[in-house]
Amino acid sequence: MTGRTRLTVILSLAAIVLLGVVAADMVLRGPGQMGDGTPVRSSGQALVGGPFTLTDQDGRRVTPADYRGKYLLIYFGYTFCPDVCPAELQVMTAALDIVGDKAEKIQALFITIDPARDTVAQMKDYIGNFHKRFAALTGSADDIANAAKAYRVYYKKVAAEDGSNDYLMDHSSIVYLMDRSNKFLVHFPYGTGPEKMAAGIEKFVK
Ligand code: NI
Q1: Residues within 5 Å of ion ligand 1 by Cβ?
Q2: Full-prediction pTM beyond 0.90?
Q3: 42 in a structural domain
Q4: Which CATH number is 143's domain given?
């Protein structure tokens, strides 16, 4: 082996090892955790969830500690959403109806990703349309950004096509079930029906 060949071999091996490290890092962190804002769309995201400080529909500042002892069924959306959010909140409501008394062990949370329009009063008015186990949480732009980050939720303002001041929010639509101490259990992707969501709740909520 000439010195030059040996150097080539060593550099190649180094490159392969480096690629292996990068690949392992991607596998461990997962696609939703690369810090590039990629929304979580797949299962097994054990790192979903974390602390938050938000304001509920009665104006109280709340953290996960306020709900300790309850399973959390969490959805991020916004009250001005024309279709996806009300449909998802209906599915959650139907699922909670199906599980019956078990719903008492669950705190459902609707967290806005549009705090500019979703005031405390707006959230209170809106959440009255859905299951009584729901609390509706808003906060400052930073409060919401922090909560969304903790739950790997993507959201982005989209200007109205007609150029008016109205706007839509592009956002991920995932329902999370967390355990009694706000640890991730399972998620329900968009399109999950009420029966399937109820079955998932039954499986974890004891
Ligand atoms: Ni929506």
Answers
A1: 77, 81, 84-85
A2: no
A3: no
A4: 3.40.30.10
